[in-house]
Design brief:
By secondary structure, this protein is of the alpha/beta class. The chain folds into three domains: 6-64; 78-173, Beta-Lactamase; 179-433, Rossmann fold, CATH 3.40.50.300. The chain has 19 helices and 14 strands. The strands form two sheets. The protein has an eight-stranded mixed beta sheet with strand order 9-8-10-11-7-12-13-14, sandwiched between helices. A hairpin with a 3-residue loop joins strand 4 and strand 5 (154-163). Helix 11 (267-279) packs parallel to helix 12 and helix 14 runs antiparallel to helix 15 (373-381). The longest helix has 16 residues, at 49-64. The two termini are 23 Å apart.
């Protein structure tokens, strides 16, 4: 959380409302600003001393996490920068003229170099990553995107683009090893997906039919989630599996026949690729992006045809994903879509990336909707906000909320309180549950 002032925490957490906070701040100002705000809040009966102590502990813990981030870099050459970023567990690398090289580690940005790069240094990096013809392509299209792979640095996607200050390149690192780096021995699906997909979600993948949605914020964990899902379904016997996406994913050794199809850049090209894949009549269809009305409608109809469709959608939470889907359609078509979703939707899994307890890596918190009769009734009625209430129930029959998943990670000692407090919806609930929490050692 960028701003952990006491007043901000109280407002964001819904612990006090704005009028009460303003009244306490006015009392503080009348006393010359000497009396602490927390003391005034307690005197006014807005919070108790135990809650105040927990909030102050949260502030101190956040300040303690602002440690120096030790970075190792072997030089400014292309391969050296890639390997240095990989050694620091980077998820992204951004190189731009006149700026320091920046990398994203555990959802936070850090400087990889101490000095800004000059134009020739950036151009050398772009040429080596994307080829010598990249200059002409940038002049025509203003951006160029290609896959890359380097021993000792992994693989991913590199995108060069022009901006006001010159040229820049964004490099992403795939979370899972490439196909060439895998062993020839097949791995059990449970061993591959245990740390990536919840067991309840994996069971829905094994059902063999219906629509299953993977949800996440843009650029976070899409490849790893799809690869884990592919490992899971590929271990279920001799089936024909088709993956449609903008970059290849690691294919496991299995009895399944797995084909990969490439998306285009435009919505029309992506829809055409999906139609072509569906015509091949696969048992299982994986789609890396159904973020447009045409592509989602194709996925929905494919699931209605009796296939298992696993599709990825950019969204923050389960409720947001369902609301986005319904917004694809005009009002007159919503009854049909809601009915279809209630009939074929099996599960929705949202994944959030968080810094680990050491701020050296990342862990994933999840929000899971298991579509049973209560969820189907909500979908048919279109009252999507009720999904949040359903996920907050303690019996796990309908899945679990993101808050509960983050609380479990905190209990296990895998994350820190300030990092989950910023994302938590029920902040007052989290403060109450963590009053006497003793986290486990990692």
């Amino acid at each position: 959380m960028d701003d952990l002032r006491l007043g901000t925490i109280l407002l964001c957490g819904g612990i006090v409302d704005e009028s009460d906070l303003e009244r306490c701040l006015a009392i503080q100002e009348l006393t010359g600003g000497v009396r602490p705000l927390g003391q005034i809040l307690c005197e006014q009966g807005l919070i108790d001393e135990r809650t105040l102590d927990r909030l102050l502990d949260l502030q101190r813990e956040q300040r303690a996490t602002a440690q120096d981030f030790s970075i190792t870099v072997d030089g400014l050459a292309t391969q050296a920068l890639l390997r240095s970023a990989h050694a620091n567990n980077a998820e992204e690398l951004v190189i731009s003229e006149g700026r320091n090289v920046r990398m994203k580690v555990a959802a936070s940005w850090h400087d990889l170099t101490e000095e800004p790069l000059r134009g020739p240094e950036v151009w050398d990096f772009v040429r080596e990553m994307l080829g010598t013809s990249v200059l002409e392509e940038l002049a025509d299209r203003h951006f160029v995107a290609r896959q890359w792979q380097l021993e000792g640095a992994g693989r991913g996607m590199a995108t060069a683009f022009r901006q006001f200050d010159g040229v820049a390149v964004r490099v992403t690192f795939a979370a899972a090893p490439s196909t060439s780096e895998q062993t020839d021995e097949p791995q059990a699906p449970a061993a591959v997906t245990a740390d990536i997909l919840p067991a309840e979600f994996s069971q829905r993948l094994r059902s063999g039919r219906g629509l299953v949605l993977l949800v996440g914020e843009r650029g976070i964990g899409r490849s790893s989630g799809l690869e884990a899902a592919l490992h899971n379904v590929a271990g279920q016997g001799q089936q024909y599996v088709v993956y449609v996406g903008d970059e290849p994913i690691a294919v496991p050794a299995s009895e399944a026949l797995i084909a990969q199809r490439k998306f285009g850049w435009s919505t029309a090209e992506r829809a055409a690729a999906m139609r072509s894949a569906i015509r091949e009549d696969p048992d299982i269809l994986l789609c890396a992006d159904v973020g447009a009305p045409e592509t989602f409608e194709l996925a929905l109809r494919a699931a209605e045809g009796g296939r298992l469709v696993i599709a990825y959608l950019d969204a923050g939470r389960v409720k947001d994903a369902l609301a986005r889907i319904l917004n694809f359609y005009p009002n007159y078509d919503l009854p049909r879509v809601r009915s279809s979703l209630a009939a074929v939707l099996r599960a929705v899994l949202a994944r959030h990336q968080l810094p680990d307890a050491n701020h050296r890596g990342a862990v994933y918190a999840t929000e899971l909707l298991l579509v049973e009769d209560p969820a189907r009734e909500i979908l048919r009625g279109g009252k999507i906000d009720d999904i949040t209430l359903l996920l907050r129930m303690e019996d796990d029959a309908a899945g679990h909320s993101l808050d509960r998943s983050m609380f479990q990670l905190l209990t296990d000692g895998k994350v820190r309180m300030p990092d989950i407090f910023a994302r938590c919806e029920e902040k007052a609930w989290l403060l109450e549950r963590t009053q006497n929490l003793e986290t486990k050692e990692i």
